[in-house]
Amino acid sequence: MMKNLLLFALFTLIVLCFSQCANPIALTGGEKDEQGPGIVKDGILPKNMKIGFVKEPIYITFDEWVKLNDVLNQVIVSPPLEYPPKVKLKGKELTFEFDDQEILKEETTYTINFGEAVQDITEGNPAEDLRYVFSTGDKIDSLRITGSLLDALEGTAVEGSMVMLYENLSDTAVTTIKPFYFARADKGGRFTISNVKEGTFQVIALANDQGKKYLFDNPEEMIGFQEAPIILNDTFKQSIDLLLFKELAPLQNTESEEVTFGHVVYKFNREPFDLNISYDESTYYTKIEYENDSIHVWHNRLEPFNIYTSYDTLWFDTLATKKLNRNEFIDQSSLRLRGASRIPGAVSKKAIHSKEAVEILFSHPIDKLNKDSILFYADSIATELTYDLNLDDKVQRKLILKSNWKESIVYKFQLNPGALTDIYGITNDTMRFEYLISKKDKFGELNLKITDLNPAYSYIVELQKPDKKVLDKFYISGKESFEKLYEYLVPNDYSLEIIEDVNGNRRWDPGSYEAKTYPERIFKSKLETLRANWTVESEVKPTF
Description:
Elements: H1 2-21, E1 39-45, E2 58-62, E3 66-68, H2 71-74, E4 76-78, E5 86-90, E6 93-97, E7 109-113, E8 118-120, E9 131-135, E10 143-151, E11 162-166, H3 173-176, E12 181-184, E13 190-196, E14 199-207, E15 222-225, E16 230-232, E17 240-244, E18 253-260, E19 263-268, E20 275-279, E21 286-291, E22 294-299, E23 306-311, E24 315-320, H4 326-332, E25 347-352, E26 358-361, E27 366-369, E28 374-378, E29 387-391, E30 398-403, E31 410-415, E32 420-422, E33 431-437, E34 444-450, E35 458-464, E36 470-477, E37 482-489, E38 495-501, E39 522-526, E40 535-540
């Protein structure tokens, strides 16, 4: 009993001593590791830059535990191998093994670029510039090529894009054989191909390589090419800068649907500007409307009829419309705003400026306007005001409202029942709209000047918002300069895009590898920030 009491007293004394004398220190994780794995001394076997290389495994030992990341895309061998190599990891040692069937080219320098495949296991820091070079001949080739790869349309780098060199100078090389050398561009579009031998090469760029085959054999792939082969020697200093583009895809009808009575929709894989479309003639209303990658056929025919489509000489198609119940459609339909399911009688409100034309889009094409059933007045004074209301020439579902708007006034536009009648004889319920006319000092003014144009060329010009939505689009032809004043612009950071329209078809055209034509050049420029109640004088000199 006495022994137990002595032990308890001793334990209590020790606890009190620690509680009064100890200085607690918080645990921390230390400094963040930002250093990638290194290679230990003599940690590469066979040694890097080996000549007279005979196919054998390659071993690399690191100074810390590592992991592998995305080996399939990160580990790149140039010239490319016929069979996928095996990349394995055991502890701190990486092993690169060639496939048993692989036959290395004679007198050739190979580069194995590991990219960011090898990372430390704590922070995922990649080993920097991890490359293994060997030659099956008696020397290491030392020439290199540098340059950039950019999207011709966007002007930005394309993830995963690569540049390829071919000793075979035929046009079909890129579609049938793998390149002799290649490299992937970095995030900024820059590339370097090192350890290249002297010789004459054609230069091809490829992106979105379907199936990782190093072949241009899929319409979804992007291609770029150098006009003439390069002669590579120790005096070569040229930067190879290529624009990648996806060739214009052959037009394909992806979907044909008779949505309702009187409305047929064709959807395509791209904008169908080169489509031929016609239909059986009739005295009944029939109209074709283009909308992005779709075509709408609106009609009011009681009996089925044929719609004919064709593309070049490649294909043609006939769609026979169905006999749908017109009366049932009319009983269940209403004339409403496009895409709206508003509560009946709800007010649509919008702020506009005093020079603005208002566009109102409806669910069906409009056939008749009855202005006796339309009210247009300011604030609460129901005095008839002057206005101009018309159907759009191209889109008969769209009304365009104009008036001599006055600042700081609320205008009320009301479509009473029967104001509109669509092509099916359906009339509208009451629709109310309010427009508040903002003061001019809420907007900015842009005086745009475009100079140094070639009068022998034509140009497509777009004024774009920060989200790249087009605010204005116009065409310049046969002029050395052009000037346009924009009033009532919302304060913002606008940009300008100018397309050199070589063939004058008023749209941007990509290139064609087979025809050896390049994509039409595009110039982009950010304009000075526009602020409220300011005027920006902007002179743009496009350099293509």
